[in-house]
Amino acid sequence: MTAGRARGRTRTTTAILGYALAMAVVLVTTQTSARAEQPTPGLGQSIAADQPLATGRTELATGHVDIGPRYVDNQWTVLIHDGTRARPVWRDPDEALLRVSDAALQTVPDDPAYAFLGVDAGKRVYVVPQVQNQDVVWLGWNTQDPRVMQSIDRGVTLTLLGVHGPGTLTTYLQSGNFAAPQPLWRSTESTEQSFWAEVNTHTHANWVFSAPGVYLVAVKVSADLINGETVSATRTLRFAVGDATSADEAFAATADIPAAAGQEPADEARTTVAEPADTSRALLLTALTGTAVVLAVVLLLLLLRGRGAKRRAERERAASLPEGQR
Question: How far apart are CA 262 and CA 268, in angstroms?
Answer without folding.
Answer: 13
